[in-house]
Write a structure and sequence with these properties.
By secondary structure, the chain is an alpha/beta fold. 42% of the residues lie in helices and 14% in strands. Strands 3-4-2-1-5-6 form a six-stranded parallel β-sheet, with helices on both faces. Helix 4 links the parallel strand 3 and strand 4. Helix 3 runs parallel beside helix 4. The chain is globular, with a radius of gyration of 18 Å. The two termini are 29 Å apart.
Length: 246
């Protein structure tokens, strides 16, 4: 990454979305188990969340577990279901100190009850915080989200509470899982770590006008400095939303 200076007075994205890629490869390069990479990836979440809170980011959405991740080896999936417990024990106290609020966005049907209980407890413990929202996308998939939203809208039309001609972009946005984020539902900036250049079924509707940056750094190596270097890339962009700047 080209080194440049972060400008604390420059543009700060309200909502940063992250695809946390490279945990397994990071571990394998060090002769460690893939689960060790996931654990260090959790520490990276802590470092980045605190840095994001300090510079004024309103929402940080992290792709913790996708609807496709169930295809991974059973032992790895079981470990990933335990990560929220580690978050509560090792990271939550520091998040509380930094006024961070935890939210969850995803489908709860397949998530083990104990895992879901721990995530909801973290949300409850931080509900009074007024700073950064750490939005955890857990058992999340954008296509499933859009399908669910479409079904909900169709049901309202069938029930007569919504007219077809009244359906617009806002209607769809209001039925997506991200609607809980209100005015910050759509990310301004996407960061994907580890050099992969794809969206992997992540926030496909919400990212329509987001700036994107694909870092070669693997997620467990992310820290405050690397995160601010990514934000610097955002500060150099011109967001035109299909128009022209004068």
């Amino acid at each position: 990454m080209e080194r440049s200076t972060f400008d604390s007075n420059g543009a700060i994205p309200n909502h940063v979305a992250v695809i946390m890629d490279g945990n397994g490869r990071w571990a394998e390069e060090r002769g460690l188990k893939r689960t060790d990479g996931h654990r260090e990836g959790l520490n990276a979440v802590r470092r980045v969340a605190i840095a994001a809170a300090e510079i004024g980011v309103k929402v940080l959405t992290v792709y913790a577990f996708s609807t496709e991740n169930w295809k991974r080896p059973v032992t790895e999936v079981r470990y990933l279901m335990r990560l929220p417990e580690l978050l509560e024990q090792e990271i939550l106290p520091e998040l509380l100190e930094n006024n961070v609020r935890v939210e969850m966005m995803g489908f709860t049907d397949k998530v083990p009850k104990q895992t879901l209980k721990i995530i909801r407890r973290a949300c409850e413990k931080t509900a009074h915080n007024t700073g950064l929202i750490l939005n955890i996308a857990f058992n999340y998939g954008a296509r499933a989200e859009i399908v669910a939203a479409t079904k909900a809208i169709a049901s309202e039309v069938k029930a007569g509470s919504l007219k077809v001609d009244a359906i617009d972009e806002q209607t769809i946005s209001d039925h997506l899982l991200s609607h809980q984020l209100g005015e910050y539902a759509d990310p301004d900036f996407l960061i994907r770590s580890s050099g992969e250049v794809r969206l992997s079924n992540y926030l496909l509707w919400q990212l329509a006008y987001a700036e994107m940056y694909f870092s070669t750094t693997k997620w467990p190596d992310f820290n405050r400095e690397i995160f601010l270097e990514c934000i610097t890339q955002y500060q150099h962009r011109q967001r035109r939303y299909g128009g022209l700047t004068q």
